[in-house]
Amino acid sequence: MKKNVWVNIGFQAGALVLALLITTLILAAAGAPPLKAYGSILNGAFGSSNNIVAVLITWAPLLLTTVGVLITFSAGLWNIGVEGQMTLGAIFATWMLRMLQDTNLPPALIIILGILWGMVGGALWASLAGALKTFGGVNEIFGGLGLNFVSTALTIYLVFGPWKRPGVGSMSGTQPFNEALWLPTLGTGLSPWGLGLSILAVILVYLLLRGTYFGLRLKAVGKNMKASYLLGIPTWQYSMFAFLLCGALAGLAGAIQVESVYHRLLPNISNGYGFLGLLVAMLINYQAIWVIPIALFFAALNVGSVQLQIVYKMDSSFAGVLQDLLVLLVLLGQGVRERFLGKA
Amino acid sequence: MDPSVLIGLAGVLAAAAPVLFAVIGETITERAGVINLSLNGSVLLSAMGGFAVAYLTDNLFWGFLAGMLIGALVAFIVAFSSITLHQSQVAVGFVLALASRDLAYFLGVPYMNIPGPTLPTWQIPLLKDIPLLGPLFFRLDIITYLSYIVIVLAWLWIFRTRPGLMLQGIGDRPAAAFVRGANVNRLRYIYTIIGGAIAGLAGPAYTLNVKPGWMGTQTGLDGIGWIALSITIFGGWSPMRAAFGAYLFSLLQWLGLVLQSRLPGIPSQVLQVAPFPLMILTLLLVNIGNAEWVQRWLASMPEGSRRFFTKLLRAMRASPPAALGVPFESD
Amino acid sequence: MRVELRNIHKYFGKNHANAGINLDIPSGTIQGILGENGAGKSTLMKILSGYFYADSGEIILDGKAITISSPSDAIKHGIGMLHQDPLDFPPMRLLDNFLLGREGGLFPDRKVVARDIQTLAAQFNFSLDPEAYVDTLTVGERQQLEILRLLWLGARVLILDEPTTGISASQKAKLFETLRTLAGQGKTIIFVSHKLEDVEVLCHKVAVLRSGQLIGESPVPFDHKKMVEMMFGKEISLGDRYPLNAGGKVLELKNLAVEDVRLHMEDIHLDLHGGEVIGLAGMEGSGQGPFIRACSGLLRPVNGRVQVNGHDLTGKSHHIFKRHGVSFLPASRMEEGLVPGLTLTEHFVLAEKTQGVFIDHAKGTKLAEERITSFNIRGTPVSTVESLSGGNQQRALLALLQTPLSLILLEHPTRGLDIESTIYIWSKLKERCKQGTSIIFVSSDLEEILQYSDRVMVFFSGKVTPPLDVATLTTEKLGQLIGGSGWNNLNSGKSL
After folding, report:
1. What are the extents of the domains in chain A?
2. How confident is the model at residue A342 (pLDDT cuts 50, 70, 90)?
3. Range of the domain at C85
4. Measured between CA atoms, how close is B124 to chain A, in angstroms?
5. The CATH number of the domain where B40 resides is what?
6. Partner residue opposite A138 with nearest CB, options B96, B216, B287
7. H-type helices in C214-308, by residue range?
């Protein structure tokens, strides 16, 4: 037992070293001095308190999308549509805020309604992918992807159409909300509410998947639908539940982005957090307990690599390259271990 | 016929070439029982790489070859992880789709928005003068002609040749194919890599011909791999039906562009996503016959209409190779 | 061709699957190989047909020692094997399926191949259309196709693995005739079976395997009783029959009509009483599957009524049936019955009634320990179900059943199990019957049907007999009905 843990850690560390090695080659090929480039990423992530705050701001939605897809992964579903579900959360939150911002309702209530409505939006969008899968036999990968693109188009339509700024619509988004409707922040832009809700969600999902009947049934449905049905579990309802829960969490992430970070709706508001959440979930081998540190690591990479763009005029997709390679190598490492060293 | 319509339709054929290569490549791979879900990324990477190599060597041939090599390399990783390591094809394919996409955007920066070589038009002597068909099919370029040939060759190979039958066999029932002398896993490697190489032509066919140049995220290729994967399903794993799907897609895109000039109020990005709801719809049509509630609903129908709907749904349905995504071990 | 096996040994881990087997089969012989599941028959055949290498020993064909590296290598040596489930390609045309695997040019000449099929088929009076699709054929026809294909490839030794399972009586007669003709031409036939009757009718001599060893050989005809002793190592008694103590009506089927893709069955009537056991006999795919699923709410009948304990549940879902005390245990244990990746404890927790939101893990473990003991499962509470053997998986499935139950529906409850497990599982089921639970089970094992049923329904390509009292049935009569003969003189008034 002990030994397996060490073998495990060894493989993960090996994957990390290998991923760094490959990205170093890539950096060199792209003409950047690799060590300095890593240095600037590190600096970009932790160099100043502003940067650390930026990392924490990135961390919150990533936590939410990651634990969201942990639920759908438990049910054996590849909810690639989490990206669009987050977008719909942002759209619904914006919708609620725009509708109520000129009323006399207390701002706190409007903010809360916005968040709840965002969760509803995400859940509804997820239920579309779920219904396509359950009632139409459309694989959730294709359903979800298609809906992602549709949600992007919907955002652009809103930003340039009905919700455009006075004058002319632009990629910079809708007119910002009244400042009273901004989720309170610690001055630096970090919203303790947003981060707090995200961490709470992590804890709740952890408990849900680990200790409850619901979680166990979800797991059973994910591993064997037919047998679960014969065991008396309402299987398609559980799949739908998983979609709805994940959608609601992604919607929460979208609402937080709108209410505490951008204070308006932007095109591409989901910003890849959904896909990144899927990667984190795969990297931690679907174990909810590791979400917190790994998501933080990924958030730091994302924020830090913005420096590459500034300093070396390189594309910030470098963070993506490193993250993708890391996950890929961990998957391959798992394969090597199972195949050649016997099952752990 | 109005000559501008004819030119437009010829443009549809040329614009379909990238999707076609991707779809035919994926069809071959999936026929062998392997899903290469990385398509969206590998097409982007081959588009960037193909353009960069053609630009650096100032030679189109090397550009296309580079595209094929990139496609083959990504496919090799899929094959290795699923056939040799027994990892989930979906997980690895998905991660590779992201990885090659990010890599394309990262490495493509130096080649962004610069003019590079493009494929010249090459009208085929004699054939170009056939009325109607000539201007439609034979006044285009060599890579579009190649796309016609690939469809026919793939179809002939799969359904008419001896090794093609074995290809069907390893995807449908690897155990039976093994008994009949196939080295199932080696063949799966080979076809995955060949399929990847063909799909790797999609990128350069776009950046060196359809819409020349690399423009980073504005290139307009992102998403095409996912479309190709769903057309593979829609095409029922037959190159002919798949080609029909690819041309239909290209035609609809062209109609969308025509429509857009008539509807100035809608941002272009909105019409650009029209293929995706359409993709969902076609998958719905192809798959809905398998859904349980449809079966129950059919069972509750009176005799006559039950038979009619059962037949209708079965005609639309496409059955995947029975062992698609299932690893094979010969004891 | 003369086939000699000399001192064949094969180990799987510690398991000595073949322990020094010697066989000499002269050409023109039909050799029977008898033995129960796990006796080592299929290991031996797989060695001969190129799937496995023997750890030691020799294969000698016509006096020459050879090594066989793969199944396709075996056919080059003239050894062809017909698998129980024919290894062909259902979505293909007969023609394509036929030529797949034969070496030759890039483009096969279909006309020549079609002619070859027809010539060969004519020799044995088979009617096969080269343009038809394989999935439209019956199992019997697929066997015929496979035999022709192996002969076309030059097979001089034919191995047949349980070929009489799932084919009709007339197809069986034709198969035997074909095999006799082939033997007459000097081909060697190896016929693997656990059915004494078939072996006795067809074979020239028979070898019996038990736990990896060749127990003995005998010419045909042989002494049945001695043969059974050789197969099982002892006289088998399947336990006592319990007298039926019928209770109230548990299940009532009225004018039921059931349909699946290929079959349509109608006019089924049944009154099932508490404690009663009904066996469903027939070739696989004759309609037992749709019928038993209709009884459990998994398949909606196209006509008629289903009543459980007096409640009309027609068209209701399986979960409603479950609430009325109906449980279904499917044949494919790992595909439909158990959840791979979950532990025994998790299974028992899932099957129990929910108590609150959080799972009490200590209680779950205790429950699992109790069930493991009382059902004699070889495993621990944290064992995942896929790590258990087939017999233990079946016990686990039974252990998951709730108490009390009105009706248990089972598909092939003892398939693939050894004789001890079979007896144990039936003793557990019969305990349930004494408490008033009724049972309907599907089996392709006639002995099992006759031993444990009170009444029997026989299925033949969409037709169903009324429930027949088991006392009026014999193996022969049942066999005829299953094969489709003797249906006209059924005394059909025998419904309770």
Report:
1. 1-32+314-344, 44-313
2. low
3. 3-232
4. 39
5. 1.10.3470
6. B287
7. 224-232, 288-295
